[in-house]
Amino acid sequence: MKKDSPPTDGGRRHVLGTLGSLGLFALGGCGGGGTDTSTLAPIMTSGVSTAATTATTAATTSTAADTTTTSSACLVVPEETAGPYPADGSNASNNNYNVLALSGIVRSDIRTNVGGTAQVGGAPLTLTITLTNTKTSCAPLAGYAIYLWHCTREGTYSVYTTQSLSDNHLRGVQETDANGTVSFITVVPGCYAGRMPHMHLEIYPSLSNAKSAGRKVKTTQLAFPTETLRAIYNNAAGYSQSVANLNATSFATDNVFSDGTSLEMVNFSGDATSGYSANIAIAISA
After folding, report:
1. What CA–CA distance (Å, rounded) separates 52 from 29?
2. In the chain, where are the structural domains located?
C-alpha cells in the first residue's frame, strides 16, 4: 500500500502543519503521464491492468495513451491508501469525521451535499464500477457497498476544507446490484499539486457494514487517462489550475500510481456536449 498526499491549496496549509508528509497534500502529482487521445469530443480511451504477475489473459492490447493495457486477467485490485481525507470515521487528519453515518449518504448523485440542491461545478461524469470476486473467476459480487469520494475541480476535499461534516459533496455510497455494479453521477475530478487525477474508494461487505472504516475489506484508488483529462481541463470552466498541475507531474512520479495503473485505470468516453462516462471492473478476493 502506497502513501497518499494532500492537495497543496492555501486554504488547507494549516492542516498540512499537523499532517507533515502523511496526508493527501503530499501525494504524487496530478500530471502528465502518457498520451491517449488529445481530442475532446468524442473522447474514448481504455485501460484495465497488467500489474500483476500471473495474468490469465487471453489477449493484451497496449494503448498509446498513458501506457496502460487492456487485459482479461482476473486479478485483485491493489490496496492503496485512503489518504488524509476519507471522512470514514477513522482518525484522519486528526479528526474523526464520518459521513458514512449520515442519513442520505447512500446515493448515486454526489454533486450536492446530503439533503442539498446546490451542485458543485465541474464537467459532468457518470462513473460505473463493477465489483467481482477472484475466488469465483471474477463473477459479480452483489450486495457489497462501495464508498466513493474525490476532490472538486479546484482540487479541494469536502468536510476537511471547511471542517464541517455537513459540507459533504462528492462523497456517497452505493450497493452493488445483481451484476456487481454501482453508478455515481459526479464531476471530473481536478488535479491538485503532487498527485495525478484520481478517485478514492472503500469496499464493504454490505450496506449495514458501511458505517465506519473498521468494516471495510478493501481501499483503493482509480486513475484517469492523462491526455483525456488534459483536453477536458483545457476546455471546461473551473479547471485552469488543474492544467498547470497536470503538466507538472506524471504517473512515473506519482507515489501511489508509480508502480502501475493497469488494474486501476478507468475506461473513459464522451464529450463536452453529452457529458462524460467512465467505467471500470475491479476485483477483490471475497
Report:
1. 23
2. 10-284
In this prediction the pTM is 0.81
DSSP 8-state symbol, 120: P
Interhelix angle for 226-235 vs 240-247, to 10°?
Answer: 150
Q: Reply yes or no on whether the pLDDT at 40 is more than 80.
A: no
How far apart CA 83 and CA 80 sit, in angstroms, is 9
Q: Give the residue carrying C-alpha cell 442519513.
A: 103
Q: CB under 8 Å, gap of 24 or more: what pairs does 215-219 form?
A: 216/88, 216/147, 217/284, 217/286, 218/77, 218/79, 218/284, 219/1, 219/79, 219/80, 219/81, 219/82
How far is Cα 284 from Cα 132, in angstroms, rounded to an integer? Answer: 6
- The CATH class for the domain spanning 10-284 reads mainly beta
Between the CA of residue 232 and those of 43, 148, 190, what are the distances in Å?
9, 22, 10
Cell numbers placing 24: 493527501
Exposure pattern of 61-84 as b/e (b: 16+ CB <10 Å)?
Answer: eebebbbbbbbebbbbbbebbbbb
Helix (H, G, I), strand (E, B) or coil at 92: strand
Grid cell 464522451 is found at 270
Q: At residue 136, does pLDDT exceed 70?
A: yes
